[in-house]
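Case study 2.
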Amino acid sequence: APTRELAMQIQTEVEKFTGSSIRATSVFGGVPRHGQQASLRSGSEIVIATPGRLLDFLENGVTNLKRVTYLVLDEADRMLDMGFEPQIRKIVSQIRPDRQTLMWSATWPKEVQRLARDFCREDPVKLTIGSEELSLNPSVTQELHFVAQYDKRDRFMSWIKSVAGDGERVLVFTETKRAADALARELQYNQISAAAIHGDKEQRQRDRTLNEFRRGTTNILVATDV
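Prediction:
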């Protein structure tokens, strides 16, 4: 997975299906290595990882991929956009060639097609959900504002206050769950009805937040882009 947040979200979903009978471990950067290292050494049937931290463990002999049967690349296009291709290729080179490889991608650019050909022993089977034709909704007006990093938050707050004052509902995306929570708190501090929604919230809480947004009780919904 390309990000820590997505790796954690995947592990949460995996555990809903596996319970305690199958051990799942997620490894990612930004946190101490010791707990993840201990989990890997004690044995795991499913490992969810960001490329950098997994490669770190492999190079330091913490674990190996000799018995991996299934390789899943989630958000393959995004991992390429983030520059992870060299790490991914190093990881894949250590997995047995008779594995089954599955790649999930929102788009199908030439770079992802090349990876699919390189990582699959046979011609890959492509499954498309929905349409490959990307088109814009003509009823949506798009605006792009160029601002300096130091001025971004003030400009955003000024804009959101003008919109929220008219009772409009607004969906705001952030890169991380922590940023979503922080922005929602700041909006609430400024007397703007806002709530955050992401994978760390309980399902009951997420449902309540969505219902409040639908009814207009909450004007601003802050969500992660994943």
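The two ends are 11 Å apart (CA to CA).
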